[in-house]
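call fold(seq) -> tokens
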Amino acid sequence: MKSRGTKVLFIGAALAIMAFVVVYIVMSRGLIGGTAATTPDASVPEGPKMVTVAVVNRDVPAYTVLDASTVATTDVEESTVAPNTTTEPSTLYGKMTLVPLTKGQQVHTDQLTATGFSDILAKGERAFSLAIPERNTFANAVTENDHVDLIWSTVLEYKRQVPSGEDGKLTWETASFTSTKTLLQDVHVMRVVKLLQAPPPSNQNSGNGNAEAASAVSTDNSASLAAMYAEGAPYATVLVLGVTDQQAEVIAYARDNGTIDLTLRSSAVQKDDTGNVVKDDQGQDVRGDKEVEKTTGIGIDTLVQQYGLPVPKTTGP
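ret:
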């Protein structure tokens, strides 16, 4: 009985050894053969596929005509390529942006127009270019899609009767007075074009004495900035305004016969007297102040009669 049990154990051990040998051989052949599941090369991940797209190489405001100085190319992952882009920068040259673009942004062809600035004008809207001095740029804060009011100041000449001589007879003489009036309100700024400014004087000195030279440069720069806000200062910016033909006539006459100044209208969310946000008919927040204010215009008589401007007593002849 004992001999029979020993024989069974021996046979079991032999079968276990044979099974181990078979498994070892199979695994060894699998490693040597290099199957797809165990091939070392298969475990190395492939890099992302890269493609070349056209981008802007600097910040570009809306309504800018693209050229070789504003468009470049860059390599990006294929999965990040936006639709309606292009790999050929030259196909974008001469086209105008409808929205502002930031440096490195991919250029979408559906954000461009090939017909130029006129393509964005609404029916009945005209583009009018108005050059303005620095004082009307609001420290360069006025930008596309702002709205402004135009104020006109001019000197008017007229004839008035005054006593002449001892006999007290009246005679006509030429007199003049200044008048100011808001002519147009809520005018759309479609584009802002900065004019080139002369660079400030540079400090050419080196070594000792730089402090004195720097002080002189600072003084010159301050004087230059002050001059930009003085009466008769050169134009600093051109605004492209969206107006009607009638408004264009008003602006052209005012520009050629007096001085135009601007006020900047609010573009913020509007609130009522209780501080609640104003909603439109669709329940959307109302942005921008569109109310038209009726103004009196200002002359010396208005200031005296309505604003109490004191005037000296006269003892005319």
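The chain has three domains: 2-43, 50-118, 121-198+213-307.
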